[in-house]
Amino acid sequence: MGGVAKPLIRLQGVPLISRQLVALSGAGVDEVVVVTGYARDAVEEQVRSFPVTVTHNDAYAQGQESSVRIGLEALNGPFDAIFVVPSDQPLISAGDLTELIGAFKKRAAGHVVVPFVNGQRGNPILLDEVAHAQILASGVNLACRHLVEQNPELVHVHATANTRYITDLDTVEDVRALAQRTGWQLELPALATVE
Questions:
Q1: For 6-187, which CATH class?
Q2: pTM of this structure
Q3: Where are the domains of the chain?
């Protein structure tokens, strides 16, 4: 995003990373690991008041997969399930996370719950301890958009009409489009307000 720290984009005055942490807390998540990359110091300062473990990915420029691995390795457990939550999804709420927990509990097969909206893969995803161990022991790439095709035995598809799972901010134009669509104020860190 051209040097913009996505976790620090503000929606209605609240940084996206803080919104995600509040949503996770509201959904009853017990342990949270925040993996920093770009703008490490600023992101760490933002999450300082939350009860989270913070770890850093020096190789963040290589992509999301390495950050996911570092986060999974930092978990203490035990756990029933693990969310992998990108910070650039501004509309995800505790209710959306609870929806995925419900899908996880009801699944008949699969170790990773992946939301799909009209055939489009979304985030966040939810995985069990089997998937956690398999991912750490192998080359499975959770960040890969082709996870379902490459590892169908791992995946439970959660078909939903909830477009919040596919609303993310990958470009400055995505930020502008969301501001126009919702009428909400979005601010890029250290840049002008986008309205």
A1: alpha beta
A2: 0.89
A3: 6-187
